[in-house]
Specification:
3 strands, alpha+beta
C-alpha cells in the first residue's frame, strides 16, 4: 500500500522534482525504495529517525 501511495504522489510531479516520504521500519523500508528504483526514479536519501520511522527522499525520473 505504501508503494501505491508513493506512486500516486509521484504521478502529477514533473521530472526532477523531489518527494519526501516517511516509512515504517520493516517491510515498508525493505520494499518501497526498490520498487521506486524499478520504476526508474532515484532514491536520493534514506535516513532512520529517532522515532523509529525512515525519511526517504525520491527524485522523479
Amino acid at each position: 500500500m505504501n508503494f501505491v501511495k508513493t506512486k500516486i504522489a509521484l504521478t502529477p510531479m514533473r521530472s526532477g522534482q523531489t518527494l519526501e516520504i516517511q516509512l515504517d521500519d520493516g517491510q515498508s523500508i525493505q520494499n518501497v525504495p526498490g520498487s521506486v528504483r524499478n520504476e526508474g526514479h532515484t532514491v536520493l536519501k534514506m535516513e532512520q529517525q529517532p522515532e523509529g520511522f525512515w525519511k526517504v527522499l525520491i527524485k522523479k525520473k
